[in-house]
Each structure stands twice: as C-alpha cells, then as structure tokens.
Design goal:
about 170 residues; mainly alpha; elongated; single chain
Length: about 170
C-alpha cells in the first residue's frame, strides 16, 4: 500500500489485538478484557484469523477478574462452535463456573456434552474438574462413572474426600 492512511486502517485491529494480548500477558486483565471485548464485538474483526483466540483471551480475562457470568458467555461461544484449540479448556471453565454460580443442572449438561468426546481424547484437567464438580454436587455415582470413563480405573469415593470434597452417596 502506498497510502499510509489506508495501511493504518488495515492493521488497526491487529495492533489493538497485540496491545490487548500484551495487557493480558502482563496480568492487567481488566484492561485486556475491555480491549478484547471491543475486538470481539467488532464486525471487522470477526473474519480475523485470531477471532477465536481473542474470544478465549476475553473469557479468560473475565474469569480471572471473577466476572463469571460474563466469562461464561464467551466460553459458551467456544463450546458452541466447538473450537478445537480451546474447547476442552472452555468446558473445564464452564463446569467450574456452573459450580461457583450454583447451577448444578449446567454441570450435568456439560458432563453429558463431554460424554460425546472420546474418553481417550479428554484432558486430565477436564476429567478432574468435571469429576470434582460432580462430587461437590453429591452426584457420587455419576462422578465415579465419569472418572472411570476417563481412564481413572481406581476411583474410590474416598478420592473425592481426599480432594477436599464432602462426599455422600447418591440416593
């Protein structure tokens, strides 16, 4: 481009994405969240190759600021469109948020969605988060089934207690 104004306009969103990423990497999650939200809501940025990375970083910034309801909205986008690079981590956070905001039905819904992912493909962190959350919700048998399907063959009810979760048998 010979025209510097046209060139500046072309790269404006990329520059804002880099600035937001730098704020995120420095731990300034409030500033990063505002900048990422501006990009995610921009129709111009939706076609950008970094759009879903931006959605993930926005969700994570909000999560780190403990704005769980807003974070959930953006993690849901990653889950809805099954963005492979971020899907399992998004699901892990969605399960955690559901427990934090007292939505046990959402934990079960996410666990059912995860049942569709081959057990061998699930990350250990995701298996642990869902299993722990089900234990916290006193869904002991469901937690054991989920953990066992994930390769945790030696799951015992005591494992939930060892993880700091009060365990009671399902009725």
């Amino acid at each position: 481009f010979a025209n510097p104004i046209a060139q500046h306009r072309l790269f404006a969103t990329e520059k804002r994405f880099i600035d937001a990423t730098l704020a995120y990497e420095r731990g300034n999650y409030a500033v990063a969240a505002v900048m990422f939200m501006d990009l995610v809501e921009s129709p111009l940025f939706r076609q950008n190759r970094d759009y879903y990375r931006c959605v993930y970083l926005l969700a994570d910034s909000l999560y780190r600021k403990r704005n769980f309801y807003a974070a959930r909205e953006y993690y849901e986008i990653l889950a809805k469109y099954k963005v492979a690079q971020y899907l399992q981590e998004a699901m892990q956070h969605l399960v955690d948020i559901a427990v934090r905001v007292h939505k046990p039905e959402e934990v079960e819904r996410y666990a059912q969605e995860l049942d569709r992912i081959p057990a061998s493909s699930r990350s250990p962190e995701l298996i642990y988060q869902v299993g722990k959350s089900l234990f916290q919700l006193k869904r002991t048998l469901r937690a054991r089934d989920f953990l066992a399907a994930g390769g945790e063959d030696d799951v015992d009810v005591e494992d939930g207690a060892a993880a700091g979760v009060r365990v009671e048998q399902d009725l």
